[in-house]
Write a structure and sequence with these properties.
The structure is a single chain. Strands 1, 2, 3, 4, 5, 6, 7, 8 and 9 form a nine-stranded mixed β-sheet that branches. By secondary structure, the protein is an alpha+beta fold. The radius of gyration is 18 Å and the shape is globular. A hairpin with an 8-residue loop joins β7 and β8. The termini are far apart. Helix content is 19%, strand content 37%. It has two domains: 103 residues, no CATH class; 63 residues, no CATH class.
């Protein structure tokens, strides 16, 4: 089996307006369709260029943005698409990849951030799992945190309560 990788480049606008943007490169994201699911009953090893382009076209509206869509704040666009063997990885931005699958015309995303490796969240958080369908802000977004004591917090509110309880104790 093979994996389909899509890489994006993120640009942030430091100008005061859209008409004369002053853009800076700010990394990007890696998206992967592991084993390519059962998309059109094919695995990625059997994908031809047109089928790959069709998958990218379905995912692109949810992983890219332009200055108009972001109210002049940023852009994100696809820079690379690659099909690699299952044991190979291609993570050009050294970030946690976001897995995606296409099911019944919807794109489902899941990202698991291991804080033991990345270390940008509070130490008590071991992992953060995010999932959503299509647009991140479509109301389908869910977040879950695995805490150092084995507890799971299923929202920002639960996470805040967990920290409040631990600080009181």
């Amino acid at each position: 089996m093979n994996n389909l990788f899509i890489h994006t480049q993120y640009l942030e606008n430091y100008a005061c307006n859209q008409s004369s943007p002053y853009m800076k490169f700010k990394g990007g994201n890696t998206y992967v369709m592991k084993n390519c699911g059962d998309f059109d009953k094919l695995n990625c090893g059997e994908f031809d260029r047109n089928l790959i382009a069709s998958v990218v076209a379905q995912v692109k509206p949810y992983i890219t943005t332009d200055l108009l869509k972001s109210n002049g704040g940023s852009e994100e666009y696809v820079t690379d698409v690659a099909v690699l063997k299952n044991e190979m990885t291609k993570n050009v931005y050294d970030t946690t990849p976001t897995e995606f699958h296409i099911y019944n015309g919807s794109v489902n995303f899941m990202k698991v951030t291991d804080n033991r490796e990345d270390g940008w969240m509070r130490n008590e958080i071991l992992e953060m799992t995010e999932s959503w369908t299509n647009e991140r802000d479509s109301g389908t977004y869910k977040v879950s945190y695995l805490m150092e004591d084995g507890d799971f917090c299923e929202s920002q509110d639960e996470l805040k309560a967990w920290f409040t309880t631990k600080e009181v104790a």
